[in-house]
Amino acid sequence: MFHPLVAFIGLRYTRHRRNRFVSFISAISMVGIALGITALITVLSVMNGFQRELRERILSLTAHARVTAVDDALEDWRDLRQRVLETPGVAAAAPYIQSEIMLMQGDTVGGALLSGILPEAEAAVADIAGQVVDGDLGALTPGGFGIVLGRDLAYQFGVGVGDKLTVVSPRANVTPAGLMPRLKRFTVVGVFATGMYNFDRGIAFAHLEDVARLFRLPAPEGLRLRLDDIFQAPRVVNALQARLDPDTLRVQSWTEEHATFFRAVQIEKTAMFVVLTLIVAVAAFNIVSTLVMVVTEKQGDIAILRTLGTSPAGILGIFMVQGSTIGLVGTVLGLAGGLLLAANVEWVVANLERLFGMRVMSPEIYLITELPSEIVGSDVLSIAVVAFLLTVGATLYPAYRASRVQPAGALRYE
């Protein structure tokens, strides 16, 4: 295959001038491979972008890892916080209390997840303040009983900054009349928006001391952690768990907390890779029909080459060069088109929306309203390798048939 004469004849057969139909099929094979690779790179890049955006948005409000007490509270949370910060890979830690609550405003009743935080410490762990669109997270002060709501949650209750609503604790008071719900009026001091409905509709924040008084807890129930590298979370969590008492403390990373969600995204990405690779495979196996026609037409040429001393391996190499050249050109064109489209997919989609007067990612339906894209080198390399191997594999049978042509039989009717 790498012999100069073999390569020369194989490349010459690629530029088939006498049979325009064979040239047309070769061109269709190249275009099919290129389009399949372009689609594959673009789709995987968009899915990588979605994964990145969702990860960043989720981790903007939640911690990279958590240390929680097996019992109700961490009595010595300050000492524990110092020990946690001494662990390599841990950048910051902040105490928290978290529990489900009921909210009431007039006739409207709904549930939410209330997190008690220290605003100054939480700022080092999560970017809650950066998500506030009305009011100020710093307005959460001990004893002030202020609350920061998600935008959709505030809209549900029809409240804004300065309005009051009632918080119902799940821990009831025991009275002579029986169990009575524990109620407290909170003042809305801020509204945040992440762009993710589940967060904006179901999360609220209040000061740690106010939440502790509402739930009658003596101390925080855990620590939220920010790590230097989120992708090293499992390793850091294992190292931290080894330093802490597993009977009283539990350490959990974001990969465990949101495992189901991110696993679903990864499975979908893998499925898309397999489905779109089949498109490339269909285009690659068009090479089979191209080479079969060429082998049939070149019977006389093959016989002459054999009588001149070309070995069966040389004949095999000639047609593998032809098929591989088609695959290589298609792969290169597909890589160029895929990288170009993936890098400019937001611009392309925006112009298509403007041209047709429609929204591809409607904000009423999707969590993310733009098409993000992230080109990952390992994905591009995998696509290129798989596509080229498919094209090389498609050449094997026709090339093998060509190498088995007998000179006497081929020249009998010449």
Strand order in the largest sheet: 2-3-8-5-7-6
Count of helical stretches? 16
Strand % is 15-25%
SS content category: alpha+beta
H-E string: HHEHEEHEEHEEHEHEHEHHHHHHHH
Number of strands: 10
Quick one: biggest sheet? Answer: 6 strands, mixed, barrel
Report helical residue fraction. Answer: 40-55%
Return residue spans where pLDDT drops below 50 for at least 5 consecutive residues.
Answer: none
Number of domains: 2
Q: Roughly how many Å apart are the termini?
A: 28 Å
- Mean pLDDT, nearest integer? 82
Shape: elongated
Tell me the radius of gyration.
32 Å
Give a verbal description of the structure.
This protein is α+β, with helices and mostly antiparallel strands. It folds into two domains: 4-56 and 262-411, no CATH class; 63-257, no CATH class. 54% of the residues lie in helices and 20% in strands. The chain has 16 helices and ten strands. Strands 2-3-8-5-7-6 form a six-stranded mixed β-barrel. Strand 2 and strand 3 (108-117) form a beta hairpin. The longest helix has 42 residues, at 20-61. The protein is elongated and about 110 Å long.
